[in-house]
Amino acid sequence: MNRFPGVDYIDFDSLLTEDQRLVRDTVRAWVEDKIKPIIEECHREARFPMHLVPEMGEMNLFGANLSDYGLPGLDSVAYGLIMQELERGDSGLRSFVSVQSSLVMYPIYSYGSPAQKDRWIPQLASGAAIGCFGLTEPDFGSNPGGMRTSARRVGDEWVLNGAKQWITNGTIADVAVVWAQTEEGVRGFLVEKGTPGYTAPEQHGKFSLRASVTSELGFQDCRIPADAMLPGVVGLKGPLSCLSQARYGIAWGGLGAAMECYWTALQYAKQRVQFMGQPIASHQLVQEKLAWMISEITKGQLLVLQLARLKDAGRIQPHHISLGKRNNVWVARECARLAREILGANGIVDDYPVIRHMLNIESVYTYEGTHDIHGLIIGEAVTGIPAYNPPMISEKKSKAPAGAARP
Predict the structure, then answer these.
(1) Enzyme catalytic residues
(2) For position 277, what pLDDT does the model report?
């Protein structure tokens, strides 16, 4: 396969600034040179390429959209293009950078004390320290309000008890941003690696996101100092605001996976010769698949570009981000499936990247808000009626006759 040239059906590049294109092209070249040659081996071995973390720090990929502490403060389009190119390399790579940036640096930057920011932001930006984000629990994913992890104040300490599940970077993290119930509501805490009572075993047996570290976090009478609490936010607003940052990046990242699958299928179809010496790209059935893929990728590009403009203008809403994440990850999932069909039996081997993206996108389709939950967020936005917890019909108000089934 030749080097990836980009996917641009309607001169999308003309909508970007020179600086935005430069950021994208720099990351694109790095992915081609450093990620593509090793990622299939990493996937086979279930290994994240840790040796590249310092390079990612030098490239300012961590917290690229933040300012201060020497961070570049890129606009939302440039940040999105970074996520696009990283996920074109691998969803696990984009997940690593997304967690470090949006779920660890962002809450510390936005809600941390000056001392917390001074200590952690420079280390996280350079990659000298790695972070993780503890919100999802074994029994509560889509409903974070049901979390059972608790924090109790005892003198000059907080005592944490509970568990978190499906945590990217957990085992290798130097600091975990952990959300827990307290007497005053949900609060965020910075828990350092090696703290007594804190464990982070790795999740094994994954067939998706294999080139990524996924962990469980455990807290058993885990004592942390009082100043480990993030002072700037109380309630679910804290973790949900972090998720909005990450989901925005995923909307761009999904396009990267879709682009890689489309481009691979296109190159393959033009080279694979069958039936009277003609490439399969000449067949109507194949062309229809390619036409669908390029159409949906193009629409997805325009969607995230508008989301970026709303974000930079301070007008973006969570349901806007839900539309982007839901649509573009679905597009990536379908593009991976169609590309696998075009490649035939070659679509299931890692001589080509399609099956890896196909497996990875199953996780992305589910995490940071499932496809269905984002549908409900959009549904609430357009109807004004939340469907997460429909009100129960009380016995007194029910008109059902005795013995009839009640909801």
Answers:
(1) 368
(2) 87
